[in-house]
Amino acid sequence: MGPVLCLVSAACFGAMAIFGKLAYASGVSPGALLLVRFVLGAALLVTLLLLRPGLRRTPVVPGRTAARVTPAVLVTALGLGAVGYAAQAGLYFSALELMDASLLSLVFYTYPLLVTLAAVLLGRDRLTAGRCAALVVASCGTLLVLLGSGEATFHPLGAALAFGAAATYTVYILVSDTVVHRLPPVTLAALVMTGAALTMTVRALVTGGTDLGFGWQGWFWLGCIAVVSTVLAMLTFFAGLRRTGPSTAAILSTFEPVVTTALAALTLGEILGPVQWAGGLLVLSSVAVLQLRRERPGRRGDGPPREPDRAGTRVRKDPVSVGE
């Protein structure tokens, strides 16, 4: 069941851009989308923690002293949502207004390569020949994705926002890696979502409020984003990660942009050209190669991995995330 759960999680995350496009078409603004998503997601996660007290316990790793939860850790978790995740989500959904969901997904999915490069520069990882090759191939793939876009689908500002979202998510992952082992995963997710909800609430108050007067269709798609592409996606990933290990979960996460592209073609009529397909395959194969090289025989069971918060991220033992 482990791989199935990981694929279900990737499919849920992959559908988020489609839900966002449909919400926009129903009159939902980006500000309303972000506000409702984070507030509803935080409420659902806090309710889950109240109903399932066992989820609040920090997993004990054999041979390792249990981490002590300090006020600084709690503030950092809230800050990750209030600053990092809120900024990343804002850039992502702003880009979604300007470009196709399928193209956005492929551009955003360069973040695992950005995390690898940043980890090497920070001294957290080594730059091997295989990783160099993967980075070069992924860069060429991204270039093909952008060059293969026609005038009707490519928007320079949208592409810049998408890269900005990937870069912001990279920083977010690297910071999350310093605290993710200090809190239970669902607790960390709830704190991150709460921090993001606070930021969006303050933003709405400062800007004079957010228009929530759209119809039931808009609320339906917002519910799908919060329930399916946030809470359900995160919980199924947790369950799958425990059964498969981080490397397998990382490789299976490359299914996410594939789902986005397929759903965009089926529901939105978005069709990628041959050059874009080639570029996307290069990016996804590079990510898979990076994760395969991290897997070592006999090491998968060496203690539980550092699980994600994927309120917006998935953080593992190594600093490369496996999701958006």
TrEMBL record:
Transmembrane spans: 35-51, 72-95, 101-122, 129-148, 154-175, 187-206, 218-241
Start and end residues of each stretch annotated as Disordered: 295-324
Subcellular location: Cell membrane
Superkingdom per UniProt: Bacteria
Limits of the EamA domain: 2-146, 157-290
InterPro entries attached to this UniProt entry: Diverse_Substrate_Transporter (IPR051258), EamA_dom (IPR000620), EmrE-like (IPR037185)
Membrane topology: Multi-pass membrane protein
Keywords: Cell membrane, Membrane, Transmembrane, Transmembrane helix
Pfam family, one: EamA
Entry's family note: Belongs to the EamA transporter family.
Name of the protein described by the UniProt record: DMT family transporter
